[in-house]
Specification:
Layout: H1 7-21, H2 28-46, H3 51-67, H4 71-86, H5 88-96, E1 111-113, H6 123-127, E2 133-134, E3 149-150, H7 160-164, E4 170-172
Antiparallel strand pairs: 1-4, 2-3
Helix pairs in contact: 1-2, 1-4, 2-3, 3-4, 4-5
The protein binds iron/sulfur cluster (SF4) (3 copies).
Length: 173
């Protein structure tokens, strides 16, 4: 096991280690399944997978388990099957909700500004290298203030805004 706590990340890293250290290419099922398995894991961790991908991953692993020539190949896919069985909810949350419950999959993090805490100082907008934060400084008695917000699809999740917000108004989920 690795130090990661996310079940999807753990299973991915363990399988990746197998491909780097053990996968020898002597038999076709194990060899051809590897890029498919890695692709599904990558998409799960980037918010680009669906529940059908989890079913597909299970199917591939079951097939490789039966056809692999050695115990290393069998063990590698057996671990994935077990991880899906034990942590189905975590896998489903990645696929269906595009969310990592352990906040370990960087691409699935969502940065938002809590309007109740934000004082409108503008420091986060000034430091954001992606231009992902928009809004205006708060002007008292004006009724059309534009509060600071983070544009999700521009945010690269670099975390810089967290370092300048003294109000702890930026939340990561
Ligand atoms: S199952 Fe074993 S023998 Fe076959 S490719 Fe994988 S590591 Fe090599
Ligand atoms: S740095 Fe914090 S308080 Fe200032 S505008 Fe950004 S979120 Fe609001
Ligand atoms: S995490 Fe980085 S890219 Fe995203 S809003 Fe904050 S500073 Fe901008």
């Amino acid at each position: 096991m690795t130090g990661a706590t996310c079940a999807v990340t753990q299973a991915y890293e363990e399988y990746l280690a197998f491909t780097e250290e053990r996968l020898c290419g002597r038999c076709l099922p194990c060899l051809t399944a590897a890029p498919l398995i890695i692709d599904i894991f990558r998409r799960l961790r980037q918010g680009a997978a669906t529940s059908a991908d989890i079913d597909q991953l299970e199917k591939i692993c079951a097939e490789v388990f039966i056809t692999a020539l050695c115990k290393h190949g069998q063990k590698a896919v057996e671990k994935i099957s077990r991880a899906i069985g034990d942590y189905r909810t975590a896998f489903e949350t990645h696929a269906r909700d595009k969310r990592c419950p352990e906040r370990s999959c960087e691409k699935l993090l969502r940065y938002t500004i809590n309007p109740g805490r934000c004082t409108g100082c503008g420091k986060c907008r000034d430091i954001c290298p992606a231009g992902a934060i928009v809004g205006e400084s708060f002007i008292p008695f004006r009724t059309d203030n534009h509060p600071y917000v983070i544009i999700g699809n521009r945010c690269t999740r670099c975390g810089l805004c967290l370092t300048v917000c003294e109000e702890k108004a930026i939340e990561v989920a």
